[in-house]
Amino acid sequence: MEFTGKVIVVLPIKSGTSQKGEWKSQQYVLETEEQYPKRLLVDVLGDDKINQFAIKEGEKLTVHFDPYANEHDGKWFGSNRVWNVLRV
Questions:
Q1: pLDDT number for residue 63
Q2: 38: Cβ–Cβ under 8 A, 6 or more apart, which residues?
Q3: Buried b (16+ CB within 10 A) or exposed e, 56-78
């Protein structure tokens, strides 16, 4: 899937340790420039991708992402994982 919008929020990097090792993730909010703007929260997973994409507030981007849902102990969590970024 893809979404084009302006980056309106860059959230702090989150990090932790899982069974697979250490991880880092950063979230961004993009907003369309329509009469009734739509907003999308996306995640970039991995220190390498965070540095590669180097997303900054105010940029206009097209992000390619995969929606993702996961269940843990009866609770569901979802995210939109970015796999490619194009600067508009």
A1: 98
A2: 5, 31, 32
A3: eeebebebebeeeeeeeeeeeee
Query: Residue 26: is it exposed, middle or buried by C-beta count within 10 angstroms (0-12/13-18/19+)?
Result: buried
For residue 67, the SS3 value is strand
Give the number of other CB atoms < 10 A from CB of residue 53.
Answer: 17
Rounded CA-CA distance 31/4 in Å is: 8
Alpha-carbon distance 6 to 18, whole Å? 32
The H-or-E segment that residue 53 falls in is helix 47-53
Q: How confident is the model at residue 87 (pLDDT cuts 50, 70, 90)?
A: very high
**Percent of the chain beyond pLDDT 90?**
95
pLDDT of residue 8: 98
